[in-house]
Amino acid sequence: MTTLHPRLAADTGALGETDLCWLRWMRDARFPWLIVVPKRDGLREWHHLPVPEQRRLLATVNHLAGELERVTGADKINLGALGNLVPQLHVHVIARFEGDPCWPGPVWGQGEPVPVDTAPEWLHRLRLPE
Fold it and tell me: Please, are residues 93 and 33 in contact by the beta-carbon 8 Å criterion?
């Protein structure tokens, strides 16, 4: 049984899933922010996935990046797979806007998150990958 890291479970809300990944949204009202988490126990690095699964993960991330750009009108889409604090492989897809609270720097470690429990409006307009 694959499990979601406790920090990811606490900081994100469920959006959907594919056969390979959980699709989550970050509970921080400052940014439209998605998280893609492969359902593989002990997986820490993208390159540890078999190549066909790497391609499927990339297709999922690309799809969500395009959708996030479409529904938010973002100036920039940031992608990241840091994993320094949460070792379970997960990919961030973040819509950025000139003048947002962290612009032009990274979102990590900047300011305080603004917690939100209710799914934001933009989330309901996303077309999820199949």
Answer: yes
DSSP state of 41: T
Mean pLDDT of 30-59: 97
Domains and CATH numbers, the chain: 6-125 (3.30.428.10)
Rounded distance between C-alpha atoms, residue 14 and residue 68, angstroms: 16
Q: How many CB atoms lie within 10 A of CB 38?
A: 23
Give the CA distances from residue 34 to residues 14, 75, 79, in Å, rounded to whole numbers and listed in that order. 10, 16, 10
In angstroms, what is the C-alpha Rg of the chain?
A: 14
Cβ partners under 8 Å of residue 12, min gap 6: 24, 25, 26, 27, 35
> From CA 91, how far away is CA 79, in angstroms rounded?
7
Write down the pTM of the prediction: 0.96
Helix (H, G, I), strand (E, B) or coil at 63: helix
